[in-house]
Amino acid sequence: MSKKDKDQTMEDPQVKDEVIDNEVTPQTEELTVEEQLNEDLAKEKDKFMRLFAEFENYKKRTTKERIDLFKTASEDLMIAMLPVLDDFERALLHIEDDKEAEELRKGVLLIYNKLLSTLEKKGLAKIEINKGDTFNADDHEAITQIPAPTDDLKGKIIDVIEKGYKLGDKVIRFPKVVIGQ
């Protein structure tokens, strides 16, 4: 091809395409029927494996949601029962002061123990804290601060106002405490 022909082909896009098509001749071979079927099979296998994995994830997710639903249903009931437990504990404290009401105390104590054991069977557990333990904001709820009676009680729990409870591993009510400053 002469220089004049090349210049002409560059200016005319239609001629350029023809020349390029004539000069470049990479032939793409068509896939054979067997190769096409293998490719289709691979695509279908991939599609199947993705669908199977998605279904397995769905099963795991729904199972977990179902277990969580059972736990939260129980949690609502436990939270509603906590004030009843608190009332029983207050009643037992006041009945202890009255020596004449020994039979009444035994009856209230029997009902309280039965209620407590039933709730414990369902997963409720007290959070054990004592006076003098170190205060931790992640584990306790401070109601107020009062001057510490002694220097060793600064930053420590002086009094427990309300007990805390856990349901399984989850804290459903933090213990309410008074701390020394």
Can you walk through the features of this model?
The chain has 181 residues and is an alpha+beta fold. It contains four helices and six strands. It has helices at residues 3-11, 13-23, 33-97, 102-121, and strands at 124-127, 141-146, 157-162, 164-167, 170-173, 176-180. The protein has a three-stranded antiparallel β-sheet. A hairpin with a 2-residue loop joins strand 4 (164-167) and strand 5. The radius of gyration is 39 Å and the shape is elongated. It starts with a helix and ends with a strand.
Secondary structure layout:
Blueprint: H1 3-11, H2 13-23, H3 33-97, H4 102-121, E1 124-127, E2 141-146, E3 157-162, E4 164-167, E5 170-173, E6 176-180
Parallel strand pairs: 2-6
Antiparallel strand pairs: 1-4, 3-6, 4-5
Helix pairs in contact: 1-2, 3-4
Oligomer: single chain
Radius of gyration: 39 Å
- Segments where pLDDT lies below 50 for 5+ residues? 15-28
N to C succession of SSEs: HHHHEEEEEE
Order of adjacent strands in the largest pleated sheet:
1-4-5
Rounded mean pLDDT is 83
Structural class: alpha+beta
User: What kind of sheet is the major sheet?
Assistant: 3 strands, antiparallel
Beta strand count: 6
Share of β-strand residues: 15-25%
Overall 3D form = elongated
Helical coverage, percent range: 55-70%
Kindly report how far apart the N and C termini lie: 99 Å
Number of helical runs? Answer: 4
